[in-house]
Every structure is written in C-alpha cells, then in structure tokens.
Write a structure and sequence with these properties.
heterodimer, A: 306 residues, mainly alpha, two-stranded antiparallel ribbon, 70% helix, globular, B: 512 residues, alpha/beta, Rossmann fold, 17 helices
C-alpha cells in the first residue's frame, strides 16, 4: 500500500516537473495567440532564456540573476517578434521560425565562445540552481508553483479584466478595436511581451531548475508541444493546462518504462514512448478536438487601408 | 458686422482635401451641419463620401482643411479624438466582435475600470436606460453572432450612444437591411433627432435620402456639387446631380415572350458538413426569354443556389436539368461542363469568383473560356487574339479605360462588372445566372448593365437574377421568387408586388 502510494506520488511529481515548462509556455502562448499573434517562436525564446539563465547563474553564482537574465533574453526575442509582426506587419510564422533558428545557433555560438565546452554551460551547483522548497524528494522549486498559479492568473486576466477583453477583441477583430479608439499595436505588443515573460521563466526552469546547466537544443521541441496544448485546449487556459499535464504524464511514463520488460510485449522501445506526445498531438488534432476555434485574426497582420 | 451670432454648427468642415497617391479623393470640401438635424450625403461609389467621413472620424488624416465641432476647431488624429468630441460612427461593415456578447461589445474601449465586473454592471443599467429612452431593446447577454443583422446594427447604434455621442454618422446603413428593418431604422433616427442628436447619413439610395433627411449634400468626384433642402428636391434631380447627366431610373422592357424550359430543378437540396440545410426542396423553372428574379435577405440560400446551378457545388438531393442534361447527387456537374451546355454565370462576388484582381483585363476577359481556339493554340495562349477579343468586349460594353493590358484591379467596380458581364454575355449563353448584377456599381453603370441584361433576355436567353436590391429585382424581373431559409417561399408578379409585401415574405412572415 505504502509502495503504491509512493509510486503514485512519484509519478505525479514527475508529471508536474515535466509539465512545468509546458504550462508556462502554453500560458505565454495563450496571451500571444488571444491577441492575434501566432507564436511559433516559443521554442526559440525558451531556448535562449535557458542559455542565459545558466550562463548568468554560472558567472554570478545567483540563480535569481539567472532567472532575471532568462526573462530579459526572452523579452528581447519577443520584442523582435513584435517588431516583425506588429510594427512591420510581417508573416508571423516566418518570424517565429527565424527566432527558433536564431536561438538554436546563437546559444551554441555564445556558449562555445564563453565557456569552451562545446556549447554547454558549466555544471551548476548549490545556489546557482533553484532549490526545492517544500518537497525535496519530488524536486519542486519556485517555478513549479509559479506555473501552477499562472493558470488561474491567465484565466482571470483574459476573462475578467479590461485588458483581457481588449486582448480578446484584438485577436478577433482588430478593426473594431481601432474603431473603438484603442491602439491595436500597443495591445499586441503587450500580448507578445507577456508571452516573452512566461517563455523566459520556462527557459530558466529548464536550465537552472530541472537541470543543472544548459546543453544545446535542450528544449527539444517543448515549445511546439506547448503550442499543441493551446490548440488542444481550444485557446482556453484550463483545458490547455490539462493538455500539458497529459503530455507531462506521457513523458513521465516514458522515463519510468525505460528498460522495463512488459509481460507479453517484451521491452518497450523507449523511442516509441518518447514519440507518444507527438503521436497523440497528431492523432487528436486530426479529429478529436472538433472544430478549431482559433481567434479569428490570429496570424493576420493588421493593416489599415491607405 | 452681424448683430446676431447664429448658433454654432454641430460640424463645420472647411476646405478638406485628401489624396491617396495619385487619387485625389476629396477636393476642398466645405460643409456645415446644423445641430439636431439629419443630413444626407449622397454620391456614387468613389465620390469620396466615405473618405470624407473617415477623415471626420479620425480614421484618415486630411492633407489640408479644418474641422470645427460646435464652433471650436478640432484635431482628429484618431477615432479616440472623434469619440472625445462626441462623434460616433456606425460603419457599413459592423465593428462588432461575433464571439462577444452585446454587453462586451458595448463596453469595449469604455470599460470603466481595470476589472470588467463593475463596468459590465454599469453598462447593463445604462443599456436598460437607453432601451427605455430611445426604444432600442436588445438582449444584453446574447452573442452577437446569434443576432439578426438588424439587431446587430441596433447594437452598433447603442455602442455609439453608450459613449455619449451627440453626433452620429451612419455609413450605408440600409445596405444589409430589409425594407421593414430600414423603416424601423428611420424611426429610430427620428427619435434620436427629437432628442437632439445630430445625424449624418451616407448613402447612395436616393429614396432614403428623400424619406429621412432634412438637408442633403451631393458629392461627385471628391467635390460637393450641390446642397439642397430635402423638401425642395427629389430623386430625379439628385440622381442627375450625382452622375452629372440625365439618368433614367425606370427601365423600358417589351412584354415577356416565354419559350421552352431551359433550366429546371426538382426537390433540390443542399446540406453542409454540419448538417445545416442551406437549400431546402427548391423547385424552379426557367424559360427562354424571361428574367426570373430571386429576392431575399443575404444568407437565405441565394448564394448556394447560384453555386449549385452553376455546377460549383453538387446538390445533396434532388435534381437539376440544364438544357436537357440532368445533374443529381450521383452525377454532379462542374462549371466547365455547365459552360459547354450553354450556361453562363456572373458570380455575386466578382473579386473572388468573377475575376482575378492581379490578372490583366484581357486575361479576365477569357477566364473560363481560355481552353482551345480561338484563345489557345498548341497549348499556348494566343496573346494578340486574347487582346483583340478584350478590346472588342470593352468597346461593346463601354468598359473604361479601354486598356486590355491594364490589371483588372485597376478598374472601378462598375467597369470590372461590365467586363465580367461582357465575357459571359458575349458567348450568347442559353442560360445566364447573374448574382448581384450591380453591387458596388455606379448609377450610370447600373443603367447600362440593366439594359444589357434586358437585351440578352429579348434575344431568348433564360436568365436568373439574384439581388439584395429590391428595386433592381422589381425593375428587371418578369417573375419574382422569394427565398427564405433555403426555401422558395413564394412567387410574385412584379406588377402586383411592392416592397412591403416582398419584405414580409423575405422575413418568412408572409407567403404569397
């Protein structure tokens, strides 16, 4: 009985650990997409943030400085995305992809130049990492709780505040927002910057919370999984959170099942389980979530005639 | 010196000028609008009336000129400034967010606090007051997408009043309304006027100007060409002022000579992916030499009917017979095949379906007929032949400018429509389907298009005309069918029809 409890507890803890960056990213992405800016660059922002968190923490010895650096790095990319998509009305997907490529390359170049470890940062120890708060055996840290709180926070902002109403409006019909005398550009920049904040926290979590240092491409597609979670959740905070937990659980199971022989099946190929979140995403997207209800103006630059 | 200063005008424009690139849209316009009146601004499409109002509302900035509000000069850099000066605008295309409730749409931009709850409660109370004072009732919690077009327009007006506007600009407000809804709108406007609201009505429908306004300004080519007290003028004079020459508003037609049935449908139905019945048991007969008009409010199946008849969509049930050839769900047609059978189609939305905006006029003039001689030889387009064909069509249909080498998008709406119509009529089709023959087309061109349609009918073409303009249906059609909710709900002889009964049928309230 005790063993069963401990197993469930560890699975839950593991799920939550894996889901934390997904949840943060998904909430960030939700702000952006609700405001009509598609953000394919979540992955890149998170990667850049992870690198700067680990690098700053390694140099200053302070995990908090690392978190701050992560947020600043992600916000810089967010501003770049805003500049491309809002000010210059470029293609949002192209800008996002460019940010991903930029982050993948720049982190390795800077890492090699600064630390000469093949793109990795030095291993972080002690105060250079975010430490467990309540449950050391579960590996919690402050950002896990931030992620949990970010869900009601996001829901409340979007559903219950003036900013949320305007954000939803600008994602549905920017022309109406303009005609109401509000600035489309300012609202969209705020959406993009909120997204950067959350992506920055997610990146910091990866390199100085969950792991002890940065390694190249360590985000491993989690930004895209977070995007999938948003679509799954039909652009709503709580359902998107649920999707993140499902993906987290699948990942936790994959880790548990490594090397385990199942009766009748033999050893489960770990690659198959690692592929599960992606397979599930495609499977569900193909027909199980019903009609997509994306914000109508998502991905469309706002251009006034003349 | 005047001894008595007159009351300041609600709005005074002085020498407003605006160009977009080489297009001089508004040329030194000055006008004066008295408080508590309804002023009409009429003009053809492209006359500059919408641009002028957009300048007043702060959407565009004037290159020169001054705006005075209530006797004070005003700077209109954005709609926010206009709203601050008590100006509200009801746009032709509603600025409403479909997924929001009425209340949410109402407060957008005037939420009254960082949190919504308080603002929404206050707005609910204010909405109840406005409903009482002006007789404008709408369910505050209804989603806008679920409202009728008339109700959506009421929400737009409420939005403007909610912001405390004392000056209301309405841009083509009746374009989407039934005659009954239009009457109700004018009642509302008169109530607003009685409460001291100043109203500007932009329209190209002369009847509405005559019915609703106190004073009217006529615009042509960016200039104010006339100002009249409404009671001193009439539709004929206004039409002449708008176009700059005499216009015949009535259409002369010889009595109909019906021939054989060229197109017929039986129990024709169309159901979409979500199971919505778009066409429901439609039975139509179209004879050579007659024009059948389909009247109805937009979105009651007219578009789908055209799509099925022209072979773009296959019917879900029932059958369609065109020139002796039968099409049913088991044997769907396609537009090319229909064309071979002798059916031509002038689509409702010329920019999406009628032409390719980026193509040259000469290319537009052969769209759909490009395969085979005379336009294609040995798999290659014969440029000179295509150009000559286009030049001939342009001459015959008075398309201006006569430049086959100009991009289609550079022609005005009326000339684009003439080109599309020319392309379809030139082939002498046995059956012609026409959707919204004169949408976005100037009065002068309307007159021309109507005459050409009647000419085709007289030469034996069986024609189906779908239009939201009742005037157009009434003057063109030999028989009128009314569509409502995907069904043909009645047939009327134009001689015995009037707008009122047709309007009732269009809302499903009465049957013939």
């Amino acid at each position: 009985m005790d063993e069963a409890f401990s197993f469930v507890f560890l699975m839950l803890a593991s799920t939550l650990r894996v889901a934390t960056p997904l949840v943060l990213c998904a909430m960030g992405g939700l702000f952006s997409e609700k405001g009509g800016i598609v953000d394919v660059g979540l992955e890149g922002k998170m990667l850049m943030a992870a690198f700067f968190a680990a690098a700053t923490s390694a140099i200053t010895g302070s995990a908090w400085a690392g978190v701050a650096a992560a947020v600043i790095a992600a916000e810089a990319l967010a501003l770049l995305h805003g500049l491309a998509c809002v000010t210059y009305r470029g293609n949002q997907v192209v800008s996002g992809v460019a940010i991903n490529i930029l982050a993948a390359g720049l982190t390795v170049v800077l890492g090699t130049a600064w630390f000469a470890r093949g793109g990795q940062t030095p291993p972080l120890v002690g105060d250079q990492r975010l430490m467990p708060i309540f449950l050391p055996e579960a590996g919690d840290n402050i950002l896990v709780y931030v992620a949990l709180l970010s869900v009601p926070f996001t829901w409340w902002i979007i559903a219950r505040t003036r900013f949320g109403l305007r954000l939803r409006a600008v994602g549905e019909m920017p022309l109406a927002v303009d005609a109401a005398g509000l600035s489309v550009a300012s609202l969209r920049y705020r959406a993009v910057l909120l997204c950067g904040l959350f992506a920055g926290l997610a990146g910091a979590y990866l390199s100085i919370g969950q792991n002890a240092g940065f390694s190249r491409d360590m985000t491993a597609g989690q930004g895209f999984i977070a995007l999938a979670a948003i679509i799954f959740g039909k652009w709503r905070a709580w359902p998107a959170f649920g999707a993140c937990l499902i993906f987290g659980l699948l990942d936790a199971v994959a880790i548990r099942l490594q090397g385990v022989r199942l009766p009748g099946l033999g050893e489960v190929p770990v690659q198959l389980i690692q592929a599960m979140p992606y397979l599930l995403t495609m499977f569900l997207l193909a027909g199980f979530i019903g009609r997509a209800v994306a914000p109508k103006a998502a991905g469309v630059p706002y251009e006034k005639e003349h | 010196m005047q001894a008595l200063t007159p009351a300041p005008a609600a709005i005074e424009l002085r020498g407003i000028d605006k160009s977009f690139g080489v297009v001089h849209a508004v040329r030194g316009v000055s006008l004066r609008i008295e408080p508590g009146t309804i002023t009409g601004i009429v003009g053809e499409n492209g006359a500059g009336k919408s641009t002028l109002m957009s300048i007043l509302y702060g959407l565009y900035r004037a290159d020169a000129g001054e705006i005075w509000i209530g006797g004070q000069p005003a700077e209109m850099a954005s709609p926010r400034d206009a709203i601050g000066h008590g100006i509200g605008m009801v746009h032709q295309h509603f600025m409403l967010i479909d997924t929001f409730t009425v209340l949410e749409n109402l407060v957008l931009g005037a939420e009254g606090g960082a949190l919504l709850a308080g603002g929404l409660a206050a707005a609910r109370a204010e909405l109840a007051r406005l409903a009482r004072d002006y007789g404008l009732s709408v369910d505050p919690d209804a989603r806008v997408a679920d409202l009728s077009v008339g109700e959506q327009q009421r929400v737009e007006i409420l939005k403007v009043l909610f912001r405390g506007a004392r000056i209301l600009i309405l841009d083509e407000p009746s374009a989407v309304l039934t005659p009954q809804e239009t009457d109700r709108l004018f009642d509302i406007l008169r109530t607003l006027k009685a409460r001291g609201v100043t109203i500007i009505l932009i329209t190209h429908k002369l009847r509405e100007i005559v019915a609703a306004t106190d004073r009217v300004y006529v615009m042509r080519q960016g200039k104010i060409v006339a100002e009249r007290r409404t009671r001193d003028t009439g539709s004929e004079e206004l039409a002449e002022l708008m176009v700059g020459r005499k216009v015949r508003l009535d259409l002369e037609k010889v009595p109909v000579r019906q021939g054989e049935i060229l197109l017929s449908t039986e129990h024709l139905s169309l159901v979409d992916d979500r199971g919505v019945r778009l066409l429901d048991d439609v039975g139509i007969e179209l004879r050579a030499g007659e024009i059948v008009g389909i009247a109805g409010i937009t979105g009651n199946g007219q578009s789908e009917l055209l799509q099925v008849l022209s072979g773009i969509r296959a019917p879900s049930a029932g059958r369609l017979t065109v020139c002796g050839h039968t099409i049913d769900p088991g044997h769907p047609g396609n537009p090319a095949h229909m064309r071979e059978l002798g059916l031509a189609h002038v689509p409702e939305d010329r920019l999406r379906q009628g032409l390719v905006a980026a193509f040259l006029a000469s290319e537009t003039s052969i769209l759909g007929y490009q395969d085979g001689p005379p336009f294609t030889r040995n798999y290659l387009l014969d440029g000179p032949a295509v150009g000559a064909h286009c030049a001939e069509l342009m001459e015959r249909f008075d398309v201006r400018p006569r430049s086959p080498g100009l991009r289609s998008s550079h022609f005005s709406g009326g000339n684009q429509q003439k080109l599309v119509l020319a392309r379809e009529i030139a082939r002498l089709p046995r059956v012609l389907l026409v959707g919204q023959p004169t949408r976005g087309v100037d009065i002068g061109a309307i007159e021309f298009i109507h005459r050409e349609l009647v000419k085709a009918r007289d030469s034996g073409c069986a024609m189906l005309v779908v239009s939201v303009e009742l005037d157009e249906i009434l003057s063109l059609a030999d028989r009128i069918l009314v569509m409502f909710a995907g069904r043909i709900v009645g047939e009327v002889e134009p001689g015995r029809a009037d707008e009122r009964t047709l309007g009732l049928m269009m809302t499903g309230a009465a049957a013939a």
